[in-house]
Structures are given as structure tokens and as C-alpha cells.
Amino acid sequence: MKLSIFEILLFCLLFFNGLHHCLAIKRYRFELKEEKHTKLCNTKNILIVNGQFPGPTIHVHKGETIIVDVINSGNYNVTIHWHGVAMERNPWGDGPEYITQCPIPPGGKFSQKVIFTVEDGTLWWHAHSNWTRATVYGAIIVHPKHGTNYPFPKPHAEVPIILGEWWKMDIQTLYYSFLQKGGDPNVSDAYLINGHPGDSYPCSKRDMFNLRVDQGKTYLLRIINSVTQNIMFFGVANHNLTVVGSDGSYTKPFTSDYVTISPGQTIDVLLEANQNPNQYYMAAKAYERTPNVPFPRNITTGIIHYNGKYDTKNTTPLPNLPVHNDTDASVSFTNSLKSLASKDHPVNVPLDITTELFYTLSINTFPCEIGNTCEGPGNTRLAATVNNVTFENPTVDLLEAYYHMINGQFQTNFPNNPPLKFNYTAPNLPSEFRSSERGTKVKVLEYNSTVELVFQGTNILGGGDHPMHLHGYSFYVVGSGLGNFNKEKDPLNYNLVDPPYQNTIAVPYNGWTAIRFRADNPGVWFMHCHLDRHASWGMEMAFIVKNGKTPESHMLPPPPDMPRC
Ligand code: C2O
Ligand code: CU
Q1: Which residue from 493, 540, 550 is spatially nearest to 97, judged by alpha carbons?
Q2: Ligand 1 pocket, 264 CB below 6 A?
Q3: Which class is domain 5-143?
């Protein structure tokens, strides 16, 4: 369809609060297409944006709005999500398939309005349709508002460090065989730094990310974990990292020799090039605590290459990262995150809570279909739950069903508490606890309600760490611990002064995490574990946040080009 200038102007007036606003809006074009790519001497077609892998970086200043024209020239359905962007009043452009939109079919197009408000720092975008995000992702950099600066000395340069993965297998085949078999998915063949595996893999000596630095200068590394199934450790040999931000929000600076980063999270660090000119490795590897869960045991490397003259054959040893099952190392990094809480970057933690929620996170099983064999324990099909509900996608997206009051697509009885209370983190929990209920249940929140949500990991089937991600909001992480949450004692130790402001938080292995947020963004907002196998097994749910009383607290109207189911 070709639009005339007149139609474009009319469209602007209607949907972008006037012409001025419309003409000033920056537009990105994202064309998705399958293209041949080679890694580890393995050539295959992967779905990518604008021919780039990782995809293009979006640059905005705090508070700006952009439009991204997403064009699907690939062979299967896809959607794009702006991870960590609150999308105030505009769930229509958020992107999760069957939650806020129907997928964009091959040959289709959807112009998504991405509204930045409080975000300040690093976020990212990724596909949100089955496992297409394995290759469809990129950085979002939110620079300080025009005329303002970082709350730390201006770095000499800024570098996105995106952790990703490479499968020799085709992603669609991987996904469908995983679903069909009912067990754990095949693990990836390599981890990547900015699309490069590095020199620890066969046939990959030269395919390594290389960052050139000048001695004495400081670099801002914007680390993004786009890995699909693992929390990661990252570090740089001989260099400390000073953490200054996470999930698009500034933190109190602290220094560490490694970073723990969950899928979905971003961690901004300052790297001071304060060593003798040489080549130093950066590296990332998986943190995995659950016994018997397969995961890639390999390590991806990159190089920090000092400018100057020296013998380049003397690259230093790899950074010393924690061992793969070191929960203390994982948790102690995450617990060190604190909001900056300064005059220019204040915190606003809800203190009077109107809505208390307690959600268990479990791995479960369903019986295998008669006549079939399944790879789950004892011929079962693995599943996962929030409060013992395995989420199932509706056939029309939830937002559409809610907005147009289409019956029969979802139920509003998502439980506030787990249906069964037990010692959640006890060893050897009985196998009866493994069964769950399938459903498309949502939790309805009144506008402006203040929510405290405690996530409790359970030890059913060996437990796990769960990086929980909420769309439409960032939340304050007020507390976390190992074992069972104690409703009397644990709240006494909450941090209500400078808790970190996250959109994704790893609930520790057999532990709990408490978050708080004010439900002031009306819409339908997905919440799920950001380990893709857990999400695909059903560790997902959605909130519906009602409109407020004033027109400014209502959802915006749907754009005219919403894809149809
Ligand atoms: Cu990073 Cu629901 O997604
Ligand atoms: Cu999980």
C-alpha cells in the first residue's frame, strides 16, 4: 500500500499528537530476512535484521519516541519486543506474540511506536516469537537527556558487549523438536561476544571480537545477555570492572572482577585501561546450578587490544571466572546492585502496599500422550509453572481480547498464592507435586495499586535459577534470599532506601526475591522466566493493569496496522 503525503500527514495528526511531534520523530527500518552466515565452519541460514548479526543498535536520548517499521521478509511469523522499555500507555507496540499482538506474517509489516520515558542507559530489543530471538536481537542505547550528563566521568568510548549463541542446527528445527520430545533442548554449540565465538572453539581462531583501547582511558561496556538458556559470568583478565548501571537505570558504583548477568539483563561497567600495553582476554561462560541440566560448558573469548608496540603473541591468561555452579558468586554480584538514589536520579519505592502476591516458580511434568514417548523423567513431558499454572497462549492476543472484550480467550483468576503450601525448597519433594494445571490466566490490577510480589523458587525436579522479566515496568528489588521466604522475618531486612531498579531479576536457586512496583502503566503486560526453555514450558503469566480515571491514565488507541491473527 502506498500512502499519499496527505494521508501520511493525517496519520501523523491522529496518532502522534500533532504534526510537529510527528516530523521530529526518528524512524528506523528493520527488515527481517534469512541470510547465509558462517561460524565454526558451519554455514546456515539465520533470520537477521537488515543483514546484520547482531542487529542494528538503536540510539535515543532519554524521553524520546521513535517508530520502528518492522518488515517481515522472512519465511515465518515473527514479532519484535523492546526489552525494558516501559512503553507507557502503549502496550500495542510491546511485541510479545499472542500477548499484545498477533505475529507479523511473512510479507507483513508493522510500525511500532517505541516510547521512552524514564529509561536511562542500556536496554535491548529481540524477537518475541517462539525461539527466533536466538538470532534476532540488538542493543538499545538510551543516552542522557539532551544537555545532561552521566553521573560518572564521561568515558572515552562506549561499546555494546552482547552475549549470544550459535547453533549448528536450524533454530526452528531445534524449537519444534524440543517441543515434540518433551525433554531438555539441545544446547548451543558456542557462546558469542558481539556475534563472534572467539578462539576457544574449533575452526574459530580468527572469528573473535576485538576491542582496541588506549592506555589510561576509560571505556563504558554496555553488557547485554541475549543468551537463551543460561545466566552468564563475564570478566576481563587483569582488569576490574566498575558497575555503574543495570537494566536502563544507574547504580551506585562498585567494583568487581566478574559480572553475573541473566538473560534479559544489561549491566553497564567502566573498564579502565590501566594495565601495561598488551592483549587481554575477555570471556564469558555459563552459571548453572541445577544438577543434570545440560548446558554448554565452553567459554567464549574476545580480546582487549591495547594500542602501542609490544609482542602480540603474549596474550595474558583467561580471566578467572567463578566455577559453573557457584551460586554464592552469582548471588553476591546480583545482591551488590543498588540504585544510585541521588538527587538527579531518585528512587520512589512504594511503601504502602495494596496488593500482596506470592508466586512459586517450578519445573513440572505432564504425562506423555498415550502411544508417544517423551524425554522428561519417567516418560513425562517437562512443563513449568508460576503458582502451578502452565501458561498456554490464547488464539487471539490477550490485549486484543481484553480491549475488544472477546470472550473465552483468558480467565482472570490467576491465583495470588500457590494452591498448595509446602516446604518449597526441601530436598526430594514427592513426585505428586510435579503435576500442574494448564490455563491462560491473568492477574488484574487496579490502576495505581502498589504491588509487592515475592517469587519463590521450588525444588521440584531439582529446582533452578529463574531470571524473571516483567514487561511494561521496571520494579524495585527490595529483598532476596536462599531457602523459603519468611513472611515475618524477611521483610524486616528489605532495602527500601536504594534497591536496584530492574526489569529482569534472577530468583536464586532454591531461593526467593521480593519486588515492588506501582501499577501506573495501563495495558496487558507479560511476565515470564527469560530462560527460553522454561518460558516455552509455561513459566509465564500476564497482568492486566486497568485504565485510571483520567484520560491521561488510559491506554492509547490501537495503531491502524496491528497484525491480525
Ligand atoms: Cu526479553 Cu518477554 O522478553
Ligand atoms: Cu526459569
Answers
A1: 540
A2: yes
A3: mainly beta
